[in-house]
């Protein structure tokens, strides 16, 4: 499939499925248990409808936004995804090169294929290469997603490395004290083991991923109070990734975090987890002060620039997009990443014009059917 034929983000998934090895495909497409959490993510945004205003002169439109004080050209960023070596041989380096032209932000995973330093310097190198097509007013930025190792010394060392490499903020993932049940992944591993040996080995391999993956990378004993030393060692803006109810949103605020990400990890962790939209509506109903005090981000199942606008109308500061970028990177490398950004950006600008706004400070809950969704 030629890249020019990719006109919606879903086209990258089709392209990637055709060329990815089974193990990589199962890794990215996997969700937990029956797949309900992931399916609910996709459905949730589809249930939001706009209430457009007309006759408002939408000739000129700006999608400019910011993340934690850093300007960005769009209110969406690339979600952290581990082991991008399974998408592309050049992994995160290839991904980050795709940021140069647009100036988008990306959050880099603790479990990246390339080192923290390699990824940071690949952005600097990409920016230094002379290129007239780059929008020089927009500088791409990198943020870092932290899985907190049970070995505190190791965690502190990593935080210091991230700081030295110039990452702008730290996103602490809190929805993964243990790995969720990754169904497709387990079947794939079992199949590989079966091809080599006995049924018993296959079952062990299928379960093996739970203990094998991230055993040394994630602490199941992580608690709210740990945010204190993390904050101290980091010394910069902190975002809690994986908030799934209003009470915890409030707690994150009380602990002095600068941002929260409402997320169920792309439907890969808890079975029957709430989608980010439900959590956002809960916060609107029970602790709306959070929306005024913190930058609230959402992710999971957002696939269209119009979905991004829906989230912003409901109070989100920005939106993370995960799998579409994995697929785009896998199928087309840097050019795929650039194209995926272009698609979302164009959809966003069009949706803004069609609902009757010209800049993101005009977003408002009255532009969507929020009351009906929240049963207000
Ligand atoms: C993830 N996600 C994730 N999150 C995190 O905090 N650390 C990580 O290393 C990863 N790794 C990862 C790998 C892959 C292949 C996927 C698909 C997801 C979760 C990710 O940051 C984000 O929350 C979801 O991907 C958002 O949902 P969508 O856009 O993929 O539907």
From TrEMBL:
The lineage of its organism: Eukaryota, Fungi, Dikarya, Ascomycota, Pezizomycotina. Keywords: Oxidoreductase. Signal peptide: none annotated. It comes from the Eukaryota. The chain holds residues 100 to 475 of 484 of the full protein. Residues 1-373 form the FMN hydroxy acid dehydrogenase domain. One of its GO terms (molecular function) is oxidoreductase activity. It comes from Neoarthrinium moseri. Its cofactor is FMN. This is Uncharacterized protein. Coiled coil: none annotated.
């Amino acid at each position: 499939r030629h890249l020019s034929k990719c006109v919606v983000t879903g086209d990258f998934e089709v392209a990637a499925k055709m060329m990815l090895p089974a193990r990589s495909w199962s890794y990215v497409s996997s969700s937990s248990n029956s797949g309900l959490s992931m399916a609910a993510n996709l459905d949730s945004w589809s249930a939001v409808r706009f209430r457009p205003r007309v006759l408002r002169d939408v000739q000129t439109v700006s999608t400019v936004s910011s993340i934690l004080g850093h300007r960005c050209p769009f209110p969406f960023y690339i979600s952290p995804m581990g082991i991008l070596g399974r998408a592309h041989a050049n992994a995160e380096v290839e991904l980050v090169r795709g940021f140069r032209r647009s100036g988008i932000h990306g959050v880099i995973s603790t479990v990246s294929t390339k080192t923290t330093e390699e990824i940071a310097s690949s952005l600097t190198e990409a920016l230094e290469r002379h290129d007239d097509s780059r929008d020089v007013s927009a500088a791409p930025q990198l943020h870092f997603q932290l899985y907190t190792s049970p070995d505190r010394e190791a965690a502190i060392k990593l935080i210091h490395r991230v700081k030295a490499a110039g990452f702008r903020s730290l996103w602490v993932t809190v929805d993964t004290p243990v790995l969720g049940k990754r169904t497709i992944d387990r079947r794939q591993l079992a199949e590989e083991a079966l091809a080599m040996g006995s049924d018993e080995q296959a079952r062990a391999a299928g379960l093996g991923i739970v203990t094998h993956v991230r055993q040394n990378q994630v602490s199941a004993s992580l608690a709210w109070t740990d945010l204190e030393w993390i904050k101290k060692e980091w010394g910069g803006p902190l975002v809690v990734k994986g908030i799934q109810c209003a009470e915890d949103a409030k707690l994150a605020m009380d602990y002095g975090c600068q941002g929260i990400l409402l997320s169920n990890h792309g439907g890969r962790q808890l079975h029957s987890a709430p989608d980010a939209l439900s959590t956002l509506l809960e916060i609107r109903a029970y602790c709306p002060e959070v929306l005024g005090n913190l930058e609230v981000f959402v992710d999971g199942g957002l696939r269209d620039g119009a979905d991004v606008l829906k989230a912003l109308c409901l109070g989100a500061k920005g939106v993370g997009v995960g799998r579409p970028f994995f697929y785009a990177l896998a199928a087309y490398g840097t050019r795929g990443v650039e194209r995926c950004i272009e698609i979302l950006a164009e959809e966003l600008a069009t949706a803004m014009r069609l609902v009757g706004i010209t800049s993101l400070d005009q977003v408002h809950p009255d532009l969507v059917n929020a009351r009906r969704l929240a049963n207000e």
